[in-house]
Specification:
Length: about 300
Amino acid sequence: MKTIDVENGPKGLPAIVQGCMRMPALTVDEAARVIRNAYDLGVTFFDHATCYGKNGEAETRFGDAFLKTGIRREDVFLQSKCAIYPERSVFDWSRESVLKAVDEILTRLRTDYLDALLLHRPDLLFDPEEVAQTFDILYASGKVRHFGVSNLAPMQIELLKKYLNRPLVFNQLQFSLEQSQLVDQALYVNNKTTEMSVSRDCGLLDYCRLHGITIQAWSPLQYGFFQGVFIDAPQFPQLNGALEMVGRKYGLSKTATAIAWILRHPAKMQVVVGTMTPERLKDICTACNVVLEREDWYELYLASGKFLP
Ligand SMILES: NC(=O)c1ccc[n+]([C@@H]2O[C@H](COP(=O)([O-])OP(=O)(O)OC[C@H]3O[C@@H](n4cnc5c(N)ncnc54)[C@H](OP(=O)(O)O)[C@@H]3O)[C@@H](O)[C@H]2O)c1
């Protein structure tokens, strides 16, 4: 397994992360097989969120299943995210809410600490001083070892950083060949003939690289707002043709080639994959064995519908 060192945080993390958003669909035994398979492949990092399944169902399923695997707690990296409360239609970073969420996560995952806690989406009413106090309490109690965010823009992170006493080590963001906004705008700069020049994230990729924040790419195989898989989807013939051709050169499937495209970026991102099919994860991990040549990386990018200025 290819590994990633976080500049201001943990080292030797697997480049491929097992996302657990789709785990509620599994039985406990099936979930145990998914966890064991991931672990055996070196995918020892598991991503959760309180909102994956009703009442934290993904975390509950994982907690029950993990016990059955016999894997030691200290041999895996458990991350979860809080802030999204669909039943209340709010995002909530208040101290009371985050502390309560962490206690509930720990109970569901059947552990006494999280390796990382991410704030899932920006609470429009967030108070950075309150967040700093909350993180201090969680760190001092030993309940959370590292902190990060998800779907946050540079200025929001700057505002948080002004008060935090601990580094933010991750920003989990949507990034795939089909949802490649993180890199698009750099190419078109201020050109007014194309929508591609519109900056939607204020230089987020460069910001994270400058500040040693590791990007975790979520939904790496999905188009739209995780609407479906672009692999073999009839609406992406050119992209699938290029994935097939480039993949053949490296001995990779189309799926693994799409993952290799993300791993090739020098920002050294982790890729959070959501497959619940052990064979598919094995295939995805083969992406770690190659480094795409520049021409191949660009060929895939252009086949996903972009053009060079
Ligand atoms: N921070 C955020 O806001 C946020 C948002 C969304 C997700 N996430 C995280 O990112 C993780 C991954 O998200 P995701 O599940 O949308 O990612 P994904 O890996 O892009 O998609 C996984 C889904 O695609 C299917 N799939 C993958 N390859 C396929 C292929 N070649 N052909 C057909 N189906 C294929 C999988 O089915 P099988 O199970 O059958 O393989 C699974 O249902 C989540 O688990 C979660 O941890 C974070």
